[in-house]
Design brief:
about 300 residues; mainly alpha; Ribonuclease iii, N-terminal Endonuclease Domain, Chain A; two-stranded antiparallel ribbon; two-stranded antiparallel sheet; 11 helices
């Protein structure tokens, strides 16, 4: 475990901020230190020195359920040598595919699927005004959100302790992060008009969406097999986006710390260039004329 305390004892070299009490700094309200530490440790532990959230996830999966192609950048599922292997394909490979290396493509797919399901009336939470029904779906969505995030986080950070995982878990389900996922996935095109009528928050809308998708994916609501499969995929993809949002933020901050310590740098895969800008495949442009974000 690396010590981040400066020689003077009042500065954290990881968070780049002063502190009065180390205990309060590490376990404080915003928990930034532990979240950054879990990402830093993932950098140190992965031999391929990949820097993006998807690459870190892939490096962990290499030792578990997947194998890399020759260029160490292409993930393929294990070959089905028996019933057990085929079962692992069904369970684990679809989850990884939602952590797409071409991130904006996955966002577009999820956005189009949600638009389709909403236009066909499959997302019940956004078509009803029954308060009790909405509360029921939100409660289910909140529980499903915690559950859905737990498994990928354990796979992403297999050597992290329970405190670090719990910290990152709580940060990922924070309402502000859910609102960010709402904006980045351009859900405004789908849900804003409906949410604004009842003054619902963006985070509230995401929790309702988790609840709705979960009900459809397990068959609680009778839908065709095609819609059920779309709901299952959307549930996994939405989970991945919620995790990726926070991983991206902390990867960006930890990358700069790593550079300042003169550690080895993989410039091809770094999410921060020498000029300090986002890697092009993670960059979002703000269209001032239209006043909304678009993928580039």
């Amino acid at each position: 475990m690396k010590s981040w305390i400066s020689p003077n004892g009042d500065w954290c070299n990881l968070c780049r901020q002063p502190f009065g009490s180390w205990f309060e700094h590490v376990s404080g309200r915003f928990k930034d230190h532990r979240a950054m530490e879990i990402i830093y440790n993932a950098y140190v532990e992965q031999g391929y020195r990949k820097w993006t959230p998807a690459d870190i996830y892939a490096a962990v999966s290499l030792n578990k359920y997947f194998r890399f192609g020759k260029n160490h950048g292409v993930i393929t599922p294990p070959q089905a040598n028996g019933d057990r292997t085929a079962e692992l394909n069904d369970i684990f490979f679809p989850l990884y595919t939602t952590f797409s290396s071409i991130e904006h493509d996955m966002k577009r797919q999820l956005n189009h699927i949600l638009k389709f399901m909403h236009s066909k009336g499959h997302l019940r939470a956004f078509l009803t005004t029954d308060i009790n029904h909405l509360k029921s779906i939100e409660i289910v969505g909140s529980r499903v959100l915690y559950y859905q995030l737990a498994i990928p986080l354990v796979r992403c950070f297999p050597t992290a302790d329970s405190g670090q995982l719990s910290t990152f878990h709580h940060i990922a389900v924070d309402p502000y992060n859910l609102e960010s996922a709402y904006d980045i996935l351009c859900m405004k095109d789908i849900f804003d008009e409906i949410c604004s009528k009842d003054h619902r928050s963006k985070g509230y809308a995401v929790r309702l969406l988790f609840g709705d998708l979960y009900h459809m994916s397990i068959g609680t609501v009778q839908k065709s097999e095609g819609i059920r499969q779309l709901a299952e995929f959307s549930l996994m993809a939405l989970t991945a986006e919620v995790i990726m949002g926070k991983m991206m933020e902390y990867c960006l901050r930890v990358d700069r710390v790593w550079r300042d310590m003169n550690c080895p740098i993989d410039t091809e895969n770094s999410i921060v260039s020498d000029e300090g800008i986002f890697h092009k495949r993670f960059r979002l442009a703000f269209d001032k004329k239209e006043g909304e974000m678009r993928f580039v």
